[in-house]
Each structure stands twice: as C-alpha cells, then as structure tokens.
Fold this protein.
Amino acid sequence: MNLPSTNENNNSQEEAQLDSRRLGRRLLRIILIAFVSINVLFLLFQIPAIQTWTVGQITRGLSQKLGTKVEIGYFRLSIINKFRLKDVYVADLKGDTLLFSEGVDARINLSPFVILSKGLMVDRVHIEDSQLYIRRDTNSFETNMEQLLAKLKRKERKEKSKRQLINIELS
C-alpha cells in the first residue's frame, strides 16, 4: 500500500492556495473595473455636451413612443441610478398641453437581467410642481392622459420591437 507523501500533500495545498489567490485577484480586478467604469460614466454625465445628447435621446424616445411632442429643458444625473429632468413638457395627441412639470425625478432599474433583456428601464418617477390638463372629448371614452398611458403599456410578447438605448414601458 503506497501512502501519499507529505511532499505531495504540501504541493496540492499550495496549488489550492495559489488558485484561491488567483481567483481573489480576478474578483478584485472585476470589482475595481466596475467601480472605475461607473465613476467614469457618472463624470461623463456631468459634461454639458453629454447632458444635451442625453436630453435629445430621452426626448426623441418619448416623442416616438407617445406619438406626440415632448420637450425637456435640462438633465442631471444625481446618483448612479437617479436623474432629474427640469422643465418637462408633454403634449397630448391633439397637440394641446397635457403636462408641464418644473421637475421630474426618476430612478433607473440597474438589475443586470433587466438591462440585458430590455435596456435601461425607469422604475420610479416623482413629478413635482406640475400642471396637468386632463380632457375627455365628448365622442371619446378615454381621456387624453389615458390615450398616452396606453401607448406606454407593454406590447404583446409576439411583437418584437427593436432594442432602444432607453426603453419606456408602463406595467
């Protein structure tokens, strides 16, 4: 009967320790890269040109999704997953003012599963100092607000929409 020598046991223990150190270093690098990337993105969003581009993307996306005019005066990323919009204007489908808000605060869902499957999703919105003009035509069952909200509701899964940078849905 051959028993493994203590030399072989020591070698296997040293290899296991070396493997765990390598794994620890890799995890540390991944965490460091993620931390640096998030901070770089946050700093980039403080640049006025990037803020202007972001306002254009949000405005264009909302206007297309709603089929009406949307204007945003200002965008500011406050914390990694929160942003503020100032002077937000949304017209109804007839072009009349539906909403004007001096401030809209929103929170982005940073779940990796949500981002990979749907893109950036806003999961909370707080609207302040606003004027909301809800109307119902005499020949319509829905108000102007209900008509726009219906455009934000999720489409059937059969319908494949192209993936957008910012996805706006109402659940």
Q: What stands out?
A: The two ends are 69 Å apart (CA to CA). The longest helix spans residues 6-44. Confidence is low (pLDDT under 50) at residues 156-160. Helices lie at 6-44, 48-66, 112-118, 144-152.
